[in-house]
Specification:
There is one protein chain. By secondary structure, this protein is an alpha/beta fold. The radius of gyration is 21 Å and the shape is elongated. It has helices at residues 3-9, 29-36, 78-91, 109-124, 151-154, 170-181, 200-208, 226-238, 252-262, 269-278, 287-298, 315-327, and strands at residues 13-17, 42-46, 52-53, 56-57, 71-74, 95-98, 128-130, 162-166, 186-191, 215-220, 243-247, 282-284, 307-308, 331-332. Keywords: Tricarboxylic acid cycle.
Length: 334
């Protein structure tokens, strides 16, 4: 794992730019979560209009801090978000999560150019950016939950053996909620948004290195950097960590929707299937499939070969099992 992404997953200090007293606002909920879920590092609210936010003393700007935080949450919109990212570079922040939208996911060429330009400036100054259009990250193993999702209020978290990495905010927390409903604990649930800098695949490689994980679930709208996904698969394979991926955008309509959602570019579906199969990543068909697979994989069962047997009180289900086995290249014992 690179040191910068380690700073995102396990930071020693977090600044919240645009910190709010109201825990229902984007700049207020991360502060609430950092207190609620036991983050042990330092937390620095940044707000030039208030002396105190949620019981914490504020500073008017990042440069007023005695040292740079590892991670900065940018919870201000538009041009203010761009300026905040530039300031992160000036003071030495390692990773910034930009929650603002209205950049590369739009059809506006100027907004797309602004996204590219701010990423270039950030990289030149050594800052990695997650987002824009990111709902945030959550590591319940460390209490580092720089997220504005309301799901963690509705469904109480429990640290566990599952990690979720998603381009979509909703698809980072919907599987979380369904897994918690089955009594399964979740350690990581992260949403990368537009993937303008740190991608879902790169973050997946970082999360796969967590020794506490026994299963990694991915939601992908595109695979812009297959080398990082191949790296994640290699890390997982070396430590026996299964990866299950839900890749949307199978159709032209789905690909168009993905472009407007996170700015994701299309991948030809048959190539996606071949890539995932080559790297040992099982592809789920839908959210139900993704979550249902978790209980099976967490049992730790491993097939010893390619032969199988179907046992049923119905001839029809055995016929369907034979079809499925044949399609998967398995030998169904008669």
């Amino acid at each position: 794992m690179t040191s910068s992404l380690q700073a995102a997953l396990d930071p020693s200090a977090i600044a919240v730019i645009g910190a709010s007293e109201n825990p229902d606002k984007i700049g207020g909920r991360p502060l609430l979560y950092l207190s609620m879920f036991g983050f042990r590092g330092e937390v620095w609210p940044v707000n030039p209009k208030r002396d105190e936010v949620q019981g914490r003393r504020t500073v008017p700007r990042l440069s007023a801090l005695s040292r740079a935080p590892d991670l900065a949450i940018i919870a201000v919109p538009g041009e203010a978000a761009v300026a905040a990212l530039d300031e992160c570079g000036e003071v030495g922040v390692k990773v910034a999560i930009m929650m603002a939208s209205g950049f590369g996911e739009t059809a506006d060429p100027a907004a797309q150019a602004a996204e590219r330009a701010m990423v270039a400036r950030a990289r030149a100054r050594g800052v990695r950016m997650i987002g824009p259009n990111s709902q945030g990250l959550a590591n319940f193993g460390t209490g580092a939950v720089p997220s504005f999702s309301s799901m963690f209020l509705e469904v109480p978290p429990q640290d566990g053996p599952v990690g979720i990495v998603s381009q979509s905010g909703a698809m980072s927390v919907v599987p979380y909620g369904l897994l918690r409903g089955r009594g399964i604990g979740v350690r990581h649930t992260h949403a990368t948004g537009n993937d303008a800098d740190v991608t879902v695949c790169e973050l997946a490689a970082a999360v796969a290195a967590d020794p506490a994980l026994k299963l990694l679930l991915l939601y992908l709208e595109s695979i812009p950097d297959p080398h990082h996904l191949a790296e994640a698969a290699a890390i997982a394979r070396d430590r026996g960590l299964p990866i299950v991926a839900l890749k949307s955008g199978r159709t032209a309509a789905g690909q168009a929707a993905a472009q407007s959602h996170t700015g994701a570019l299309a991948n030809e579906d048959r190539l996606v299937d071949a890539f995932l199969e080559r790297h040992g990543i099982w592809r789920a068909d839908d959210t139900t499939d993704l979550v249902a697979a978790a209980e099976l994989y967490l049992k730790g069962w491993r097939p010893g070969g390619r032969r199988m047997v179907a046992i049923s009180n119905s001839g029809a289900t055995c016929v369907m099992a034979a079809d499925a086995a044949s399609a998967a290249g398995l030998d169904l014992t008669p």
